[in-house]
Structure prediction request, 378 residues.
Amino acid sequence: DAYANDPDRSPALRVNSTEPFNAEPPSELLMNDFVTPNDLFFVRNHLPVPPPVEDPSAWHLKICARGPSVCHHVSMDDLKRTFDKATVTATLQCAGNRRREMAGVKAVKGLSWDKTAIGTARWSGARLADVLRAHGVDDAMRHVQFEGRDADATGERYGASIPLATALDPRKDVLLAYEMNGRDIPRDHGHPLRVIVPGTVGARQVKYLDKIICANTESPSFWQTRDYKGFPPNVDYSTTDYWSRAGPSVQELPVQSAITEPAADTPVDVDDTITIRGYAWSGGGRGIVRVDVSLDDGHTWTQADLDPRATAQEYNRSWAWTPWELTVDVPDNATTLTLVCKAVDSSYNAQPESVAPIWNMRGILNNAYHRVTVHLLR
Ligand code: MTE
Ligand code: MO
Prediction:
């Protein structure tokens, strides 16, 4: 059993699949902290967790910075001693976050994620740009490919790539991370080393990192070439040559927000006011300038209070989410409220109003207005 050596997990996680293990935290726990505790951070594994690296000092990363034919070995000690340690607080979101709502429009293929396949951590490690420069990177190359140690039964390993321009831009803060929230990265999150690409889809942030290759082509892995791509709403698995209809690989993510409290379908005890909380976030370092909340299904709107730790982030380098909160009077005699939230990012991108027009067969990139209907006990 390839899964026999998987690590122990918190019983608080809501499990979407056990082999491979995929789970997300309960909605009402997600926004308790600006930085998500490691044991509550959503886990997205495509494959069995690889055997632990028992002795990280005997382990090396392979770096092929001038193309696949010339590779160097870098030990964990080299990585920690030779390169400055950088720490970045970044939100990681799976492309499939909120897939469940998209599946409500029409069937999609993939795990049924609710709205918590997203989390924020303080990631520490070496800057990928520094490590590539030290190994004579060829700036004319176009992509950086990453290979994990986790493999399927045929030996195919998890892999993905990002543009080399992203990796080399010091203001993009791409890390080879060996710590998550001040501790060694847990096994589920990529021990001993993973890539962190702030503002980019989770799928490119390769865990259990084994090899880095600079190349003129994207990663040849299934997950780069055939998955995590956008499909138009009129294409499904029965469409002839559906692969030729895919858009480019997903990299930076669009603006997103969701209501985490009150959770859907839980009766809410209210006096005269109700407190609504959630997160907003956008890809590419775009900060959140506004979150609008409605209690009447979008007829009228009120601005939520944004967490000052989020709004203090640098322009185009706002890697962490924006927790938001709103306490408002409940309309007299109301028994049901349809809460809606929508965020605006620093490029004034807005979320689409509904899921149907952005439906895609893979169920990714759902960033429609988020709606929660609550029944009031009063
Ligand atoms: N890296 C490896 N090696 N194997 C994987 O299955 N899953 C990817 C990415 N990196 C994956 C991986 C996907 S799709 C996501 S969303 C993130 O890891 C999830 O990271 P997390 O499990 O630390 O939350
Ligand atoms: Mo993902």
Summary: The CA atoms of residues 25 and 327 lie 24 Å apart. The chain has two domains: 14-245, 256-377.
